[in-house]
Amino acid sequence: MAEERILVTGSDGFVGRALCREFEFAGVTHYRAIRRPGTDRAPTSDHGRDVLVGDIGSRTNWDNALQDVSAIVHLAARTHVMRETTTDPAGEYRELNVEGTRNLAQAAARSGVKNLIFISSVKVNGEHTGLHPFRETDEPRPEDAYGRSKLEAEQVLWGIAKDSGLKISVIRPPLMYGPGVKGNILTLLRTIERGWPLPLASVRNRRSLLYVGNLVSAIMACLVNPRSAGQTFLVSDGAPVSTPELICCAARSLARPARLFPCPPSLFAFAGSVLGKRDQVSRLTGSIEVDSSLIRQELGWLPAYTFEQGMAETADWFQSVARFP
Questions:
Q1: CA-CA-CA-CA torsion for 159, 160, 162, 166, nearest 10 degrees?
Q2: φ, ψ for residue 7, nearest 5 deg
Q3: Is 146 an annotated catalytic residue?
Q4: Which of 31, 93, 146, 305 is catalytic?
Q5: At a CB cut-off of 8 Å and minimum separation 6, what does 31 contact?
Q6: In this prediction, what percent of the chain has a pLDDT beyond 90?
Q7: How many angstroms separate the CA atoms of 249 and 258, rounded?
Q8: Strands 48-52 and 29-34
Q9: Cα-based distances in Å from 12 to 34, 75, 313, 322
Q10: For 240-295, what is each residue's pLDDT tens digit?
Q11: Are 12 and 209 in contact (CB under 8 A)?
Q12: pLDDT above 50 (res 40)
């Protein structure tokens, strides 16, 4: 691994920062693809440096960034947007997530890059699980433009791999958390910190979660193990948790009470529908469970952190940096 030269796209994002810190710690030479000078706040170091590529899409010129690169971790993506402002969200998703990925993979194949690790999403599988967790062999059922763009990007990559020597590995993470997290997890931490009551005590769902440090360790496993080539992996911390269990663990880590009270899920769902919050309620009460046994069997991967350890790290970051908006 120390002799590898790895290009990281999306290096200034939630996962990218954690991955580059791990590369730095491990002494791995890595290049951080950035859109414009100053966008990546990580300092140039003994093992990492910035390479300017501009906006990532169908026309990005990767020639300079791919010089002497042996592997790529492709994190850059247009992620799920709660409040759309663009008039063509599907087109925006396709330009970066599909055409940007196609352009990068084709350039990588031409440049002799050996491996590309693509971070996809559990949304490729779908939005809800029933009696059984999602598995890699399930028929994909994405329900939104983001999930469909990630599925199409995966299909593009498999086609390029078939026609070239580029080895592809795909990781589909579920809901992630950790230092630097945004979105629903950050909102939940702020709600607990402020002591607001939550009507979620009666929820009996099953959610697979993934601490960012565990995703980083899974990426490292794919980079060093040749058995990862040609594989798609669902990855999680381990046993799923319910929303009340998530809240209670976060509250303990914050040294705050978990102010939960019971409310029939059907009533909660009705209120969400009336208030135009149906999707938010669904994420709090629905189940998304993944079976991560394949990566454990094929690569011998095990989570580096337990759920409790990951939440404690997240709470420490939150209380020192992100307590208030």
A1: -150
A2: -95, 130
A3: yes
A4: 146
A5: 5, 6, 7, 8, 48, 49, 50, 51, 65, 69
A6: 66
A7: 9
A8: parallel
A9: 8, 10, 20, 17
A10: 999 999 999 999 999 999 999 888 777 766 666 655 666 666 777 889 999 999 99
A11: no
A12: no
For residue 52, which amino acid is it? L
Question: In sequence order, which residues have a C-beta less than 8 Å from that of residue 288 and are 6 or more positions away?
Answer: 122, 127, 128, 129, 134, 174, 175, 207, 208
How far apart are the C-alpha atoms of 88 and 105, rounded to whole Å? Answer: 25
Output 93-97 pairs: Cβ under 8 A, ≥24 positions apart.
93/145, 93/146, 93/148, 93/149, 94/149, 94/152, 95/57, 95/58, 96/56, 96/57, 97/146, 97/149, 97/150, 97/152, 97/153
Q: In the structure encoding, which two tokens stand for residue 226, read together?
A: 């040749």
Asked whether 95 and 57 are in contact (CB, 8 A), the reply is yes
Strand ranges in 229-322 using DSSP code E only, listed in sequence order: 231-234
By the 8 A CB rule, do 62 and 68 touch? Answer: no
Question: From CA 232, how far away is CA 194, in angstroms rounded?
Answer: 40
Cα distances from 114 to residues 19, 30, 56, 119, 169, in angstroms, run 19, 15, 21, 17, 11
User: Does 3.30.1360.120 match the CATH number of domain 5-172?
Assistant: no
Question: How many angstroms separate the CA atoms of 97 and 40, rounded?
Answer: 20
Q: For residue 224, give the amino acid letter.
A: V
Query: Which DSSP helix (H) or strand (E) runs through 167?
Result: strand 167-172
Q: What is the DSSP letter of 286?
A: S
Pairing of strands 71-74, 48-52: unpaired
Residue among 80, 97, 86, 99 at smallest CA distance from 10: 97
Q: Which amino acid is at 223?
A: L
Closest to 219 measured CA to CA, from 75, 50, 102: 75
Instruction: Tell me the per-residue pLDDT of 166-214, one tens digit each, with 9 for 90 and over.
Output: 999 999 999 999 999 998 899 999 999 999 998 888 889 999 999 999 9
Cβ within 8 Å of residue 252, ≥6 positions away: 258
